[in-house]
Recover the amino acids of this structure.
């Protein structure tokens, strides 16, 4: 069996993991196709040029989805279950922006097998998304 996970007993407050990706036009088009969100502020240069942003913005959930990647593959890793997530969208992400997503352990409840994380996406030094997630780690069979 392939394993890429950290046991709940090994997880400590302050542990973190990060993921970086540059947002492309193809990412936005693919996300619009999968999600059904074809809001012109994401997919139309003409419409977006007249918006308050002045150009197209990425769907916020593209960047927020990087948290899921971190939880499922790095910390805690394979087998964990996303229980909840809050998201505060602070600034837009544009095509060509490089997003750094970071999850940091805030608390560990071994008895309930739940971990609370602070979640942040940054573009440069600017926090574009902040929030908190709760992850459940099932017992291994």
């Amino acid at each position: 069996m392939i394993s890429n996970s950290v046991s709940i007993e090994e997880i400590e407050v302050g542990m973190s993991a990060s993921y970086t990706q540059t947002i492309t036009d193809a990412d936005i088009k693919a996300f619009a196709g999968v999600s059904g969100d074809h809001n012109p502020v994401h997919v139309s240069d003409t419409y977006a040029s007249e918006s308050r942003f002045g150009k197209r913005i990425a769907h916020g959930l593209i960047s927020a989805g990087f948290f899921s990647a971190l939880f499922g593959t790095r910390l805690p890793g394979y087998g964990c279950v996303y229980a909840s997530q809050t998201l505060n969208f602070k600034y837009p992400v544009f095509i060509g922006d490089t997003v750094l997503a970071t999850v940091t352990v805030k608390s560990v409840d071994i008895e309930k097998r739940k971990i609370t994380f602070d979640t942040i996406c940054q573009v440069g030094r600017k926090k574009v998304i902040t929030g908190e997630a709760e992850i459940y780690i099932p017992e291994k069979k």
